[in-house]
Write a structure and sequence with these properties.
heterodimer; A: alpha/beta; Aconitase, domain 4; 7-stranded mixed beta sheet; 15% strand; B: alpha/beta; Aconitase, domain 3; 2 domains; 5-stranded parallel beta sheet; 16 helices; 33% helix; globular; binds iron/sulfur cluster
């Protein structure tokens, strides 16, 4: 069995890279990764399908989209508007973004399951108000190579010589900064307490609880 | 902070500990898995040499990719066959019970759990599927989770979560003629917004909710997630217990029923429970609701005018404008008369027996409009079988509907059932996002199942209450 101690969970207190603006409210996970690309048994190779229907027309000819633009090809910090990642809970969405090269997302707000899925991959989802986001998106448009530093611990974003305050959900910040975002390892170490909780539940039968072999 | 609600009580009973992240580690009483979101999680388990911790509390089905016409193996589509084979292998290796298509028990995961009595009050239920909230209809705490969390649950039998606030949504009065559970939830989402529930769990209460059968309650809880809520539930009552008593689990274990009932009673929200928010909606004022846009929050009563984007809150205007362009609707008009090409009666929102029965009553003695292709996809093999025995299949087929095998089908277009080009679809499902039904130019109008049946007949969105009487031929 794997102990919590056996697994190295990297700390994500800081992410930096150039930005890429994705404008629009309510961008749902069907847009981030259309369902037809989910017919896979691994996440490898999902990156090229990120935002597919927004990037390509019916003849697979590229449309105008930041993910198609040469100047953003090395970008890793995505800047989005409100309610990003709403809709289906598919983890394929953050997986596709991560595999395309996104390491952090700054936005006005995120759908809860999406943000949780990002956290499980070690991708911070930090928030700021409408105006701040728009300014940042405009700046990224003008400075595609400009460096954006996301300080998860200090809850700041620095770009173009300016540092702004952003918000990182408390639990998310702690998980990333302390390197405890890999919950499997963390929770596995509580196996005996888990068994005890199960035993106290009236609907769980004893034969459904595995022996404490591990 | 909420206190003494069902949510608080069930949460506390399942809490193992508080993690260093501040999240609570919750024990999972039932883990449902399906073919699309689980293979990667099993893969991660293998990478780390971990085993499934609680296989006895895990149950699998196949729904998303399963073909609903020709189900012979290997499936025609390679990707579908591969996903199915992978699931079969994973459940065999782990010793997980599987409602596979040869069992007669297969179906959409949110239909089969309640059907078999796996879904029970006071359980924590998770599944890698956002509509897991459906199971809250039984007074369970049911959440959709992502693939990494599926891995957590497989490996540890637990999930890490932050506690949410509780909003009580009280729907008072009696629903009018032709108004259904689906209309109630579409109205709730329209009023509170698709993000209104973020940070909340919804408790549905009030006379209009309590007088619903379990299927109606499931339709409502199903769409909690479309309103941004992490989960939704209804306190268990006699209607709930009656359903449970007739399920496989309690038929096989009758002594369990008597044993568990006090627990179910104990987890009901107290009369003086405290909520973080309370919203009241007059159920008697509702009419059938249909969507005009591309989010489930963009709904209106069937006789109401489509709003002009300027009337909406500023942050919704842009989305509304794009939605109206996509749907080709004009503000000021109603949705009545909106031409449709496809009628889809299916999905975990509305493909249970009473849904099909009600729709069949509309269809009986009538013909599907010549420009419409219409299909019925039962939520499970059991629903299908009973419906066939009751003669519903014959009613639908006589009217020109295609009668299919159980699965998710055109709800998300992952199998061959898809919209083509810019087809418009009257759909009993839960999502009208662009591209959702398989074509990025496709247009989805969400509505209740009787309204779908009426639209199929007339060829346009229509108020089912206004359909002229037909001579109903005895079947
Ligand atoms: S029927 Fe639709 S919403 Fe329900 S589980 Fe299947 S794909 Fe998801």
């Amino acid at each position: 069995m794997t102990d919590a101690a056996d697994v190295e969970i990297p700390e994500v207190d800081y992410v930096s890279g150039s930005g890429i603006p994705i404008r629009g409210n309510d961008i749902d996970t069907d847009q981030i990764i259309p369902a037809r690309f989910m017919k896979v048994v691994t996440f490898d190779g999902l990156g090229e399908f990120a935002f597919f229907d927004l990037r390509f027309d019916e003849n697979d000819e590229p449309k105008e989209h930041p993910f198609n633009e040469q100047r953003f090809q090395d970008s890793s910090v995505m800047v989005v508007n409100s309610n990003f990642g709403c809709g289906s809970s598919r983890e394929h969405a953050p997986q596709a973004l991560m595999r395309w090269g996104i390491d952090a997302i700054i936005g006005e707000s995120f759908a809860a399951i999406f943000a949780g899925n990002c956290l499980a991959l070690g991708i911070p989802t930090v928030t700021a108000d409408t105006e701040t986001i728009q300014e940042l998106q405009d700046w990224v448009d003008e400075n595609p190579d400009g460096e954006i530093d996301v300080d998860v611990e200090a809850e700041t974003v620095t770009y173009g010589g300016e540092t702004i305050d952003v918000t990182v959900d408390d639990a998310q910040r702690k998980a990333l900064v302390d390197g405890v975002w890999d919950t499997t390892a963390l929770m596995k170490s509580n196996a005996s307490e888990v068994r005890k909780t199960a035993q106290d539940l009236p609907y769980v039968r004893d034969d459904q609880i595995p022996d404490a072999a591990d | 902070m909420s206190d003494s609600t069902l949510y608080d009580k069930v949460w506390n009973r399942h809490k193992v500990t508080t993690l260093p992240t501040g999240q609570d580690q919750l024990f999972v009483g039932l883990h449902l898995i399906h073919e699309v979101t689980s293979p990667q999680a099993f893969g991660m388990l293998r990478e780390r040499d971990l085993e499934v911790a609680y296989p006895e509390l895990t149950h699998a089905t196949v729904d998303h990719i399963v073909p609903t016409a020709d189900q012979s193996r290997p499936y025609k589509e390679d990707a579908a066959e591969e996903m199915m084979a992978e699931l079969e292998q994973n459940v065999r290796d782990a010793g997980i019970e599987f409602s596979d298509p040869t069992s007669g028990n297969q179906g959409i995961v949110h239909v089969i759990g309640p059907e078999q009595g796996l879904t029970q009050p006071g359980k924590t239920i998770v599944c890698g599927d956002s509509h897991t909230s459906t199971h809250g209809a039984f007074g369970a705490l049911a959440f959709g989770i992502g693939t990494s969390q599926i891995r957590d649950v497989l490996a540890t039998g637990t999930v890490a979560m932050e506690k949410q606030k509780v909003r009580k949504i009280e729907v008072t009065g009696e629903l009018g003629e032709g108004v259904e559970a689906k209309d109630v939830i579409l109205e709730i989402i329209r009023r509170l917004g698709t993000e209104g529930g973020v940070g909340y769990v919804y408790e549905y209460a009030g006379e209009a909710i309590e007088s619903l059968g379990m299927e109606g309650r499931m339709s409502i809880c199903n769409m909690s997630i479309e309103g941004g809520a992490r989960a939704g539930y209804v306190n268990p009552d006699e209607t709930t217990y009656e359903w449970l008593e007739n399920t496989d689990y309690f038929q096989d274990n009758p002594e369990e029923f008597a044993k568990l009932k006090p627990y179910w009673e104990s987890i009901r929200s107290d009369a003086d429970a405290e909520y973080d928010d309370v919203v009241t909606i007059d159920g008697s004022s509702l009419e059938p609701v249909v969507t005009w846009g591309t989010t489930p929050g963009q709904g209106i009563g069937i006789s109401d005018p489509i709003p002009s984007p300027e009337e909406l809150p500023e942050d919704k205007q842009d989305t509304a404008r794009r939605a109206q362009e996509h749907m080709r609707v004009e503000p000021g008009e109603t949705m009545e008369g909106y031409e449709i090409d496809v009628a889809f009666l299916g999905s975990c929102t509305n493909a249970r027996l009473p849904d099909l029965r009600r729709a069949a009553e509309i269809v009986e003695g009538r013909q599907v409009h010549e420009d419409v292709r219409a299909l019925v996809v039962p939520g499970s093999q059991r629903v299908q079988k009973t419906a066939e025995e009751e003669g519903l299949k014959d009613v639908f087929e006589a009217a020109g509907f295609d009668w299919r095998n159980a699965g998710c089908s055109m709800c998300l277009g992952m199998n061959e059932d898809q919209l083509e080009g810019d087809e418009a679809c009257a759909s009993s499902s839960n999502r009208n996002f662009i591209g959702r039904q398989g074509s990025k130019d496709g247009r989805t109008v969400l509505m209740n199942p009787r309204m779908v049946a009426a639209a199929a007949i007339v060829g346009e969105v229509t108020d089912v209450r206004d359909l002229p009487e037909t001579e109903v031929t005895a079947r």
